[in-house]
Amino acid sequence: MSVLVIENYPDAPMGNVGRALDQAGVTYDIVQAHAGEPVPETVAGRSGLVVLGGSQNALDDEGYPFLPIVCGLIRNFHEQDKPVLGICLGSQLIARAFGAENILDRPIEFGWHEVRAVDTAGDDPIGRILAEGSPIFHWHTDTFSLPEGAVHLASSDATPHQAFRLGRATYATQFHFEVALPEVKLWSELFSERIQDHDPDWPQRFAEEANRHAAASDRTGQAIAEAWVALLDRS
After folding, report:
1. Which residue from 17, 51, 184, 195 has the highest number of Cβ atoms inside 10 Å of its Cβ?
2. Cα end-to-end distance, the chain, whole Å
3. pLDDT tens digits, the chain, 235 residues: what are they?
4. What gap in Å lies between CA 61 and CA 21, rounded to an integer?
5. How many CA atoms lie less than 13 Å away from 43 in the CB half-sphere?
6. Measured between alpha carbons, how far is residue 177 from residues 15, 32, 148, 220, 225 in Å?
7. Beta strands of the chain (E only): which ranges?
8. What is the rounded distance in angstroms from the CA atom of residue 7 to the CA atom of residue 36?
9. How far apart, in Å, are the Cα atoms of 230 and each of 20, 28, 155, 225, 227?
């Protein structure tokens, strides 16, 4: 098995998803779309697709002309019942690919915040993991409405639509479950100036919030990653 990964923005690590793929012995190839690497337009024998996050909005085709190609690729994998995973911007591109509304420039949701399964999640594998709620890392302003036929899976206090599923195995998560404490530390260092613009006290808050939330967030994120990777065996 081999998974195709679309990297929409530099320094967007695979984190828990990469660790779950490695643990399962699944290889993956990363296409750095943000750096001009061409995005394939077909599934090309792949077992699944991961679309990572980024700071751009999901409608900025002029600035990022690869975005419509990514949307087409999402549809191609979905139509062949091959698992798709979109995280943050990736989730917004799944929403766009299936005709939902991209909602731009909302108040920022940043840091560890609780995500909870909703009633419609039922017995969904990811819904089960979030049934009791868990802190998970967030960094976004944009979000989405639900595509027609989507199963709503999770919400947070700030964002009603935190996750949904289409069909058997196309999953969209607005929250960054792939990000564990090492990745949060990396982002806090690399993007300190950007974070300063909206959370100037983050350097002072970081250690205390990490102590309160990171362990539970890391466990939940790894469990979600492993649940999605397990779907590859059935594709």
Report:
1. 51
2. 10
3. 799 999 999 999 999 999 999 999 999 999 999 999 999 988 988 999 999 999 999 999 999 999 999 999 999 999 999 999 999 999 999 999 999 999 999 999 999 999 999 999 999 999 999 999 999 999 999 999 999 999 999 999 999 999 999 999 999 999 999 999 999 999 999 999 999 999 999 999 999 999 999 999 999 999 999 999 999 975 4
4. 30
5. 19
6. 9, 21, 24, 7, 8
7. 2-7, 27-32, 48-51, 84-87, 102-103, 109-117, 134-140, 143-144, 151-155, 163-166, 170-173
8. 11
9. 9, 15, 23, 9, 5
Give the single-character DSSP code of 31.
Answer: E
Nearest to 91 by CA among 74, 76, 107: 74
How far, in Å, CA of 235 to CA of 220, rounded? Answer: 24
